[in-house]
Design goal:
CATH architecture: Orthogonal Bundle
Number of helices: 5
GO molecular function, one term: DNA binding
Helix content: over 70%
Oligomer: single chain
Organism: Solea senegalensis
Radius of gyration: 18 Å
Order of helices and strands: HHEHHHE
Largest sheet: 2 strands, antiparallel
Keywords: DNA-binding, Nucleus, Receptor, Transcription, Transcription regulation
CATH superfamily: Retinoid X Receptor
Protein name: Progesterone receptor
Number of domains: 1
Strand content: under 5%
InterPro entries: NHR-like_dom_sf (IPR035500), Nucl_hrmn_rcpt_lig-bd (IPR000536), Nuclear_hormone_rcpt_NR3 (IPR050200)
Number of strands: 2
CATH class: Mainly Alpha
């Protein structure tokens, strides 16, 4: 069904709470930010798929290094890696919900002839249908 704006806000609020609970370091945060930007690929792949994969792996490697600074033990650091990657996967789901919400709001606004800023319209009109039609593949760390 439709995600209410309230549910969406709760989901979005969960993210900074989790960051606080996990006491994410600046280094971890920067790595996670980069990984999240690299967490979808078009289904048809990329022209420079190998370079993309390498860049993504580098950030994942940097994340493990940042975790080792925070957690010395092998078990503790692998648990932390699990929790941080799980959080990134959850964020992916939340972003999808936000996208759906944006698209339905955009369609309703169009029906009521509300003007959207041009760049926003372009992003919504060209990108979101691709995402929602499953024409992009999320790169998740964990299977549900």
């Amino acid at each position: 069904g439709r995600t209410s704006i309230y549910d969406l806000c709760l989901a979005i609020q969960f993210i900074p709470q989790e960051f606080a609970n996990l006491q994410v370091s600046r280094e971890e945060f920067l790595c996670m930010k980069a990984i999240i930007l690299l967490n979808t690929v078009p289904l048809e792949g990329l022209k420079s798929q190998a370079a993309f994969e390498e860049m993504r792996q580098n950030y994942i490697h940097e994340l493990t290094k940042a975790i080792h600074i925070k957690e010395k033990g092998m078990v503790a650091s692998s648990q932390r890696f699990y929790r941080l990657t799980k959080l990134m996967d959850v964020m992916h789901e939340i972003v999808k919900k936000v996208n759906l919400f944006c698209l339905s709001t955009y369609i309703q606004a169009d029906a009521m002839s509300v003007e959207f800023p041009e760049m926003m319209s372009e992003v919504i009109a060209s990108q979101l249908p691709k995402v929602l039609a499953g024409m992009v593949r999320p790169l998740l760390f964990h299977t549900k």
